[in-house]
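RETRY 2/3 - previous attempt timed out on the joint model. Re-submitting the same 632-residue input unchanged.
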Amino acid sequence: MNRALSIRSKSNSRSGPSSSSSHGRKAFSLASLRGTVQPELSKRLYRLIKSENNLIAAHEAAGKERVSIATQLSEWGEQTGDEAISDISDKVGVVLSEMGEQEDSYAHALDESRGVLKAIRNTEKSVQPSRDGKAKIADEIAKLKSKEPESTRLVVLEQELVRAEAENLVAEAQLTNVTRQKLKEAYTAEFLATIERAEKQVILAKHGLRLLQLLDDTPVVPGDSARQYVHGNQARQILNDAEDDLKDWRLDTGLLEGRGQQQDGGEHFVSTNTSPVRSPKTPALQHHNGNGVTGHEREATENGGGRSATGKEVEV
Amino acid sequence: MNRALSIRSKSNSRSGPSSSSSHGRKAFSLASLRGTVQPELSKRLYRLIKSENNLIAAHEAAGKERVSIATQLSEWGEQTGDEAISDISDKVGVVLSEMGEQEDSYAHALDESRGVLKAIRNTEKSVQPSRDGKAKIADEIAKLKSKEPESTRLVVLEQELVRAEAENLVAEAQLTNVTRQKLKEAYTAEFLATIERAEKQVILAKHGLRLLQLLDDTPVVPGDSARQYVHGNQARQILNDAEDDLKDWRLDTGLLEGRGQQQDGGEHFVSTNTSPVRSPKTPALQHHNGNGVTGHEREATENGGGRSATGKEVEV
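RETRY 2/3 succeeded.
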């Protein structure tokens, strides 16, 4: 089978936490010093949560750039003085801008999921002293047995060990429970957010393609009279369609029905994962209100009021 | 209508290139000095192309972080000593890693589209001298007419102006053609790439959700014997399904059929936009080969060879 069933690096197989020094990182970098403050048990997750932060920042940056590009595209298109380019670039800009907003929502959903992982890390942190305590007592007993096998302290220590073991048993069970529940919750949320972003961006991209198809790119001959742009109404209708489709979008709830034999998990899923899905917020396009040209003004422009492709060129 | 039909900022309406100084940017920042080197006509697109670069970098970073998180998740899961967590986290890691690869492919597609925009910018750059030349001659004629209306140079200048106008007419037609074609091509490619990334990530996320549903997160009681993990085969099958679904993925070619009345544009679309779609490369999961545990080794681990959830805890 020439396909990966695992992504673990081979060098690290089964060696546990002690292998972290083999990653070739410098001993005294700030990052590694910080990591060292974490108890051994929670180190890996501590780093993973930091990486999730970088991931979130990257998607946030992508969303921001997308929105900025959308405005730039619209303003560039206006400046070309070509009626068709001006209208299409502006409306494609609206679509791109909404894609950027979806990217930003995705980043926020990832951030919520990251918060859930922290619950595991915190439990790992709190279980470490329990493990350490148990090990320390066992150690003491072993030493004492070899040095002073008759010591009366041995009885006390054995009692302490039984108590420490009982306490640790509870701690480990808590760790198992929290780890499984929160891992499932965190990545279920990430996958659902991925689906939401993807499906909404597909809607937007499809309508974006429709807009571009309104742009007649058959070559003009020098001196041709400027072709009239007649697709203003169609272009506006496409934005309406995009808005309607986004409003109608729902998460396929079938995704959360147990498909394996793990029926137990099903209920937990549904209860813990309503937050990333959220109420389908009145979507899209609305946030542009106020900083755009009003519908009325656009109307005037579209009917050719006051400018034409040639008119612009004469001015220059 | 309380919805945006435009994303242009109001302050900038119809003022054209001259408004670029009103953006409140500092006069002597390095960025603005660089921008100044560009002819007026191509300045906006020059900046937009720079912003596209930031967008690409952001998606690249997101892809890289995603792949890194995937490995970290897998290695963290192994270290928990919980058989179920170990297997599920590893396979979820495979899915996340492939999602990261899709993000990276997306960044590359955006980069190709950015290259197409450069063709517009370069044409804009080359048209600027033609506009300037024409304007300069017209200016000279106007000055001369007011100062020496009888000058014989006027005849020569008028002839020069006719030539300059003819040359500019060609240049402007070229600009219109290149702008329309390349704008359509560039953003068609971006939208198609968006659809490809989205649809593939939906496939991956859905199988990721299936994996997580194999994780039994009903609470354990302290001292319970470790639950046997029995979903190894199912988990492996889910990765197989994900790979098959990715292989079967095709772009909906109906997306490129003209839906508006602009049938002319249809053919151009198909011809210019084969590159972002690419042949559906044998996808997914394959790049993990070699650095992962082999199928055989996994098999041994899955059958509980040599480790159990409790075994790990005793060691510590």
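Chain A has one domain: 39-215+230-250+267-292. Closing ticket.
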